[in-house]
Amino acid sequence: MTVTIGRDIAHAVAILRRGGLVALPTETVYGLGADARNADAVRRIYAAKGRPADHPLIVHLADATQLADWSAEVTPLAKKLAEKFWPGPLTLILRRAAGVGDFVTGGQDTVGLRVPSHPVAQDLLRAFGGGIAAPSANRFGRVSTTTAEHVAEELGDAVDYVLDGGASDIGIESTIIDVRGDEPVLMRPGHIGVRDIEAAAGAALQAPRVDAPRVSGALAAHYAPATPLLLLEADLLLELAATLSQQGQRVAVLAMSARQPLLDGLHWQAASDEAGAYAHTLYANLRALDAAACAVILVEQPPLRPAWAAVNDRLMRAAAGARPA
Are 61 and 222 in contact (CB under 8 A)? Predict the structure, then answer.
Protein backbone atom coordinates (compact mmCIF):
# COMPACT_ATOMS: atom_id res chain seq x y z
CA MET A 1 0.00 0.00 0.00
CA THR A 2 1.33 3.44 -0.95
CA VAL A 3 0.71 6.50 1.22
CA THR A 4 -1.47 9.26 -0.25
CA ILE A 5 0.11 12.67 -0.88
CA GLY A 6 -2.20 15.65 -1.26
CA ARG A 7 -3.28 19.10 -0.09
CA ASP A 8 -6.72 18.41 1.38
CA ILE A 9 -6.80 20.12 4.80
CA ALA A 10 -10.29 18.85 5.65
CA HIS A 11 -9.24 15.28 4.91
CA ALA A 12 -6.13 15.68 7.08
CA VAL A 13 -8.19 17.06 9.97
CA ALA A 14 -10.62 14.14 9.75
CA ILE A 15 -7.73 11.69 9.95
CA LEU A 16 -6.27 13.44 13.01
CA ARG A 17 -9.64 13.49 14.77
CA ARG A 18 -10.07 9.75 14.34
CA GLY A 19 -6.60 9.06 15.73
CA GLY A 20 -4.62 8.77 12.51
CA LEU A 21 -1.23 10.09 11.45
CA VAL A 22 -0.74 13.01 9.08
CA ALA A 23 2.66 14.18 7.87
CA LEU A 24 2.71 17.96 7.64
CA PRO A 25 5.12 20.45 6.11
CA THR A 26 6.78 23.04 8.31
CA GLU A 27 9.37 25.68 7.49
CA THR A 28 12.03 23.49 9.16
CA VAL A 29 11.35 19.85 8.17
CA TYR A 30 8.27 17.66 7.67
CA GLY A 31 6.62 16.45 10.86
CA LEU A 32 4.73 13.23 11.61
CA GLY A 33 1.60 14.55 13.28
CA ALA A 34 -1.06 13.18 15.62
CA ASP A 35 -3.62 14.65 18.01
CA ALA A 36 -1.45 15.58 20.99
CA ARG A 37 -4.32 14.81 23.41
CA ASN A 38 -4.88 11.29 22.04
CA ALA A 39 -2.60 8.75 23.72
CA ASP A 40 -3.26 5.97 21.22
CA ALA A 41 -2.62 8.27 18.26
CA VAL A 42 0.65 9.53 19.74
CA ARG A 43 1.75 5.95 20.41
CA ARG A 44 1.32 5.36 16.68
CA ILE A 45 3.96 8.06 16.07
CA TYR A 46 6.42 6.19 18.29
CA ALA A 47 5.65 2.90 16.55
CA ALA A 48 5.94 4.36 13.04
CA LYS A 49 9.28 5.99 13.80
CA GLY A 50 10.70 3.28 16.06
CA ARG A 51 11.19 6.06 18.61
CA PRO A 52 12.00 5.33 22.28
CA ALA A 53 9.00 6.01 24.52
CA ASP A 54 10.98 8.33 26.81
CA HIS A 55 12.00 10.66 23.96
CA PRO A 56 9.65 13.68 24.14
CA LEU A 57 7.71 15.17 21.25
CA ILE A 58 7.14 18.79 20.24
CA VAL A 59 3.54 20.01 20.27
CA HIS A 60 2.68 22.35 17.39
CA LEU A 61 0.14 25.12 17.99
CA ALA A 62 -1.69 27.58 15.75
CA ASP A 63 -0.65 30.62 17.79
CA ALA A 64 0.73 31.77 21.14
CA THR A 65 -2.73 32.18 22.69
CA GLN A 66 -2.75 28.38 23.13
CA LEU A 67 0.35 28.39 25.33
CA ALA A 68 -1.68 28.42 28.54
CA ASP A 69 -3.49 25.23 27.45
CA TRP A 70 -0.21 23.34 27.48
CA SER A 71 2.02 25.10 30.01
CA ALA A 72 1.55 25.39 33.76
CA GLU A 73 3.35 28.74 33.72
CA VAL A 74 3.97 30.96 30.71
CA THR A 75 7.07 32.76 31.94
CA PRO A 76 7.96 36.35 31.00
CA LEU A 77 10.89 34.95 29.03
CA ALA A 78 8.57 32.63 27.08
CA LYS A 79 6.32 35.58 26.24
CA LYS A 80 9.28 37.64 24.98
CA LEU A 81 10.58 34.92 22.69
CA ALA A 82 7.15 33.90 21.44
CA GLU A 83 6.33 37.51 20.59
CA LYS A 84 9.60 37.91 18.70
CA PHE A 85 9.92 34.59 16.86
CA TRP A 86 6.48 32.99 16.51
CA PRO A 87 5.30 31.86 14.08
CA GLY A 88 8.75 30.52 13.29
CA PRO A 89 11.46 27.91 13.85
CA LEU A 90 11.65 28.16 17.66
CA THR A 91 10.58 25.55 20.24
CA LEU A 92 10.06 26.64 23.85
CA ILE A 93 10.48 24.26 26.79
CA LEU A 94 8.06 24.99 29.65
CA ARG A 95 6.55 23.19 32.61
CA ARG A 96 3.64 21.16 31.33
CA ALA A 97 0.07 21.92 32.28
CA ALA A 98 -2.16 19.46 34.10
CA GLY A 99 -3.64 17.06 31.58
CA VAL A 100 -0.64 17.04 29.24
CA GLY A 101 0.15 13.36 29.03
CA ASP A 102 3.36 11.48 29.69
CA PHE A 103 2.93 10.02 26.20
CA VAL A 104 3.85 13.46 24.77
CA THR A 105 6.49 14.54 27.29
CA GLY A 106 8.42 11.30 27.61
CA GLY A 107 7.38 11.15 31.26
CA GLN A 108 8.91 14.52 32.10
CA ASP A 109 7.27 17.54 33.73
CA THR A 110 8.21 19.70 30.75
CA VAL A 111 6.72 20.10 27.28
CA GLY A 112 8.13 21.48 24.02
CA LEU A 113 5.84 23.93 22.19
CA ARG A 114 6.14 25.56 18.78
CA VAL A 115 4.09 27.68 16.36
CA PRO A 116 5.26 26.89 12.82
CA SER A 117 5.11 29.53 10.10
CA HIS A 118 4.50 27.29 7.09
CA PRO A 119 1.12 28.29 5.59
CA VAL A 120 -0.02 24.68 5.14
CA ALA A 121 0.87 23.84 8.73
CA GLN A 122 -0.96 26.97 9.86
CA ASP A 123 -4.06 26.03 7.85
CA LEU A 124 -4.04 22.54 9.36
CA LEU A 125 -3.55 23.74 12.94
CA ARG A 126 -6.27 26.35 12.70
CA ALA A 127 -8.72 23.90 11.15
CA PHE A 128 -7.88 21.19 13.70
CA GLY A 129 -8.16 23.58 16.63
CA GLY A 130 -5.80 21.76 19.00
CA GLY A 131 -2.21 20.77 19.47
CA ILE A 132 -0.51 18.42 17.02
CA ALA A 133 2.42 16.37 18.31
CA ALA A 134 4.85 16.17 15.41
CA PRO A 135 8.44 14.95 15.50
CA SER A 136 10.32 14.80 12.21
CA ALA A 137 8.67 12.44 9.71
CA ASN A 138 11.41 9.84 9.43
CA ARG A 139 12.63 6.70 11.13
CA PHE A 140 14.16 7.46 14.50
CA GLY A 141 17.77 8.65 14.29
CA ARG A 142 17.73 8.87 10.52
CA VAL A 143 17.94 11.78 8.09
CA SER A 144 14.98 14.15 8.44
CA THR A 145 12.53 14.66 5.58
CA THR A 146 12.12 17.98 3.76
CA THR A 147 9.68 17.01 0.98
CA ALA A 148 6.45 15.03 0.82
CA GLU A 149 8.17 12.50 -1.42
CA HIS A 150 10.88 11.93 1.22
CA VAL A 151 8.17 11.17 3.77
CA ALA A 152 6.45 8.65 1.51
CA GLU A 153 9.77 6.92 0.78
CA GLU A 154 10.71 6.88 4.46
CA LEU A 155 7.47 5.87 6.18
CA GLY A 156 5.25 4.34 3.49
CA ASP A 157 1.83 3.31 4.73
CA ALA A 158 2.80 3.86 8.38
CA VAL A 159 1.42 7.37 7.79
CA ASP A 160 -2.20 7.81 6.71
CA TYR A 161 -1.78 11.01 4.69
CA VAL A 162 1.02 13.38 3.65
CA LEU A 163 0.13 17.05 3.25
CA ASP A 164 2.29 18.38 0.45
CA GLY A 165 3.66 21.85 1.10
CA GLY A 166 6.67 21.73 -1.18
CA ALA A 167 10.26 21.65 0.02
CA SER A 168 10.89 22.99 3.53
CA ASP A 169 12.33 26.50 3.41
CA ILE A 170 14.88 26.20 6.21
CA GLY A 171 15.73 22.51 6.00
CA ILE A 172 16.89 21.80 9.57
CA GLU A 173 14.97 21.49 12.82
CA SER A 174 13.94 24.32 15.14
CA THR A 175 16.09 26.00 17.75
CA ILE A 176 15.04 24.67 21.18
CA ILE A 177 15.23 27.00 24.20
CA ASP A 178 14.38 26.16 27.83
CA VAL A 179 12.44 29.20 29.06
CA ARG A 180 11.30 28.00 32.48
CA GLY A 181 13.56 30.49 34.26
CA ASP A 182 14.78 34.04 33.73
CA GLU A 183 17.67 33.10 31.44
CA PRO A 184 17.34 31.24 28.12
CA VAL A 185 19.03 27.82 27.94
CA LEU A 186 20.06 26.47 24.54
CA MET A 187 18.91 22.86 24.21
CA ARG A 188 19.39 22.50 20.44
CA PRO A 189 20.84 24.97 17.91
CA GLY A 190 18.76 25.85 14.89
CA HIS A 191 18.05 28.55 12.32
CA ILE A 192 17.59 31.24 14.99
CA GLY A 193 21.06 32.04 16.27
CA VAL A 194 22.52 32.87 19.67
CA ARG A 195 22.72 36.64 19.17
CA ASP A 196 19.09 36.89 18.08
CA ILE A 197 17.90 34.86 21.07
CA GLU A 198 19.97 36.93 23.51
CA ALA A 199 18.78 40.22 22.00
CA ALA A 200 15.13 39.20 22.32
CA ALA A 201 15.57 37.72 25.80
CA GLY A 202 17.67 40.55 27.20
CA ALA A 203 19.88 37.91 28.80
CA ALA A 204 22.85 35.73 27.91
CA LEU A 205 22.14 32.29 26.51
CA GLN A 206 23.12 29.51 28.93
CA ALA A 207 24.33 25.95 28.36
CA PRO A 208 22.10 23.15 29.70
CA ARG A 209 22.83 21.79 33.17
CA VAL A 210 23.26 18.11 34.01
CA ASP A 211 19.63 17.90 35.16
CA ALA A 212 18.26 19.53 31.98
CA PRO A 213 15.18 17.91 30.42
CA ARG A 214 15.47 15.61 27.45
CA VAL A 215 14.52 17.27 24.16
CA SER A 216 14.00 16.16 20.58
CA GLY A 217 17.07 15.60 18.43
CA ALA A 218 19.65 15.96 21.19
CA LEU A 219 21.02 12.42 21.27
CA ALA A 220 24.71 12.09 20.39
CA ALA A 221 23.87 9.98 17.33
CA HIS A 222 21.05 11.32 15.16
CA TYR A 223 20.11 12.63 11.67
CA ALA A 224 22.17 9.81 10.16
CA PRO A 225 22.19 8.12 6.75
CA ALA A 226 22.60 4.35 6.60
CA THR A 227 25.91 4.75 4.77
CA PRO A 228 28.86 5.46 7.12
CA LEU A 229 29.59 9.20 7.18
CA LEU A 230 32.91 10.87 7.95
CA LEU A 231 33.32 14.61 8.59
CA LEU A 232 36.74 15.78 7.35
CA GLU A 233 38.75 18.87 6.51
CA ALA A 234 38.93 19.47 2.74
CA ASP A 235 42.53 18.25 2.23
CA LEU A 236 41.98 15.06 4.25
CA LEU A 237 38.72 14.43 2.41
CA LEU A 238 40.41 14.60 -1.00
CA GLU A 239 43.25 12.38 0.15
CA LEU A 240 40.91 9.74 1.56
CA ALA A 241 38.65 9.86 -1.49
CA ALA A 242 41.66 9.18 -3.73
CA THR A 243 42.85 6.30 -1.56
CA LEU A 244 39.45 4.62 -1.44
CA SER A 245 38.96 5.08 -5.18
CA GLN A 246 42.29 3.41 -5.86
CA GLN A 247 41.10 0.50 -3.72
CA GLY A 248 38.08 0.14 -5.99
CA GLN A 249 35.52 1.56 -3.57
CA ARG A 250 32.69 3.89 -4.55
CA VAL A 251 32.81 7.13 -2.58
CA ALA A 252 30.12 9.80 -2.06
CA VAL A 253 31.25 13.35 -1.25
CA LEU A 254 29.45 16.45 0.02
CA ALA A 255 31.85 19.35 -0.42
CA MET A 256 31.95 23.11 -0.58
CA SER A 257 35.29 22.91 -2.33
CA ALA A 258 35.38 23.27 -6.11
CA ARG A 259 38.37 20.93 -6.31
CA GLN A 260 36.50 17.91 -7.62
CA PRO A 261 39.07 15.21 -8.45
CA LEU A 262 38.76 12.95 -11.49
CA LEU A 263 38.41 9.62 -9.72
CA ASP A 264 36.61 6.41 -10.64
CA GLY A 265 33.52 5.65 -8.60
CA LEU A 266 33.26 9.16 -7.14
CA HIS A 267 29.76 10.57 -6.52
CA TRP A 268 30.30 14.29 -5.90
CA GLN A 269 27.65 16.65 -4.52
CA ALA A 270 28.44 20.37 -4.40
CA ALA A 271 27.17 22.29 -1.36
CA SER A 272 26.76 26.03 -0.82
CA ASP A 273 29.36 28.00 1.13
CA GLU A 274 26.53 30.07 2.71
CA ALA A 275 25.14 28.62 5.94
CA GLY A 276 21.44 29.12 5.22
CA ALA A 277 21.61 27.70 1.70
CA TYR A 278 23.72 24.76 2.93
CA ALA A 279 21.15 23.97 5.64
CA HIS A 280 18.26 24.21 3.16
CA THR A 281 19.67 21.36 1.05
CA LEU A 282 21.55 19.38 3.74
CA TYR A 283 19.08 16.56 4.31
CA ALA A 284 18.13 16.26 0.64
CA ASN A 285 21.83 16.01 -0.20
CA LEU A 286 22.45 13.36 2.46
CA ARG A 287 19.49 11.34 1.21
CA ALA A 288 20.77 11.51 -2.38
CA LEU A 289 24.27 10.47 -1.32
CA ASP A 290 22.88 7.67 0.84
CA ALA A 291 21.02 6.33 -2.21
CA ALA A 292 24.16 6.34 -4.35
CA ALA A 293 25.25 2.87 -3.17
CA CYS A 294 28.68 3.99 -2.01
CA ALA A 295 30.91 2.54 0.70
CA VAL A 296 31.17 5.81 2.59
CA ILE A 297 29.96 9.42 2.57
CA LEU A 298 32.74 11.99 3.06
CA VAL A 299 31.54 15.44 4.15
CA GLU A 300 33.78 18.49 4.05
CA GLN A 301 33.84 20.16 7.47
CA PRO A 302 31.92 23.46 7.27
CA PRO A 303 33.35 26.57 8.91
CA LEU A 304 33.39 26.52 12.72
CA ARG A 305 31.64 29.87 13.01
CA PRO A 306 28.42 30.81 14.86
CA ALA A 307 26.37 31.01 11.66
CA TRP A 308 27.18 27.34 11.04
CA ALA A 309 26.40 26.06 14.57
CA ALA A 310 23.17 24.25 13.66
CA VAL A 311 24.64 22.67 10.51
CA ASN A 312 27.71 21.46 12.40
CA ASP A 313 25.51 20.09 15.18
CA ARG A 314 23.54 17.99 12.68
CA LEU A 315 26.64 16.75 10.85
CA MET A 316 28.44 15.72 14.04
CA ARG A 317 25.41 13.72 15.17
CA ALA A 318 25.03 12.21 11.69
CA ALA A 319 28.66 11.10 11.75
CA ALA A 320 28.12 9.51 15.16
CA GLY A 321 24.97 7.72 14.05
CA ALA A 322 25.74 6.55 10.49
CA ARG A 323 26.17 2.82 10.11
CA PRO A 324 26.04 0.25 7.32
CA ALA A 325 22.53 -0.57 6.09
Answer: no
**What pLDDT, on the 0 to 100 scale, is given for residue 321?**
81
Q: Are 282 and 150 in contact (CB under 8 A)?
A: no
Q: What is the CATH number of the domain that holds 164?
A: 3.90.870.10
206 occurs within a structural domain: no
- What's the total number of domains in the chain? 2
Give the separation between CA 125 and CA 239, rounded to whole angstroms.
50
Q: Are strands 110-114 and 90-95 parallel, antiparallel or unpaired?
A: antiparallel
pLDDT at residue number 323: 65
Residue 218's pLDDT is 82
Tell me the pLDDT tens digit for each residue of 260-292.
Answer: 887 888 999 999 999 999 999 999 999 999 999
Q: Which domain holds residue 99?
A: 4-201
- Are 22 and 60 part of one and the same domain? yes
Number of H helices, E strands in the chain: 11, 14
Decide: helix, strand or coil at residue 183.
coil
Q: Is residue 325's pLDDT more than 80?
A: no
Phi (first) and psi of residue 177, to 5 degrees = -125, 130
| pTM metric for this prediction | 0.95
Q: Is residue 252 one of the residues assigned to a domain?
A: yes
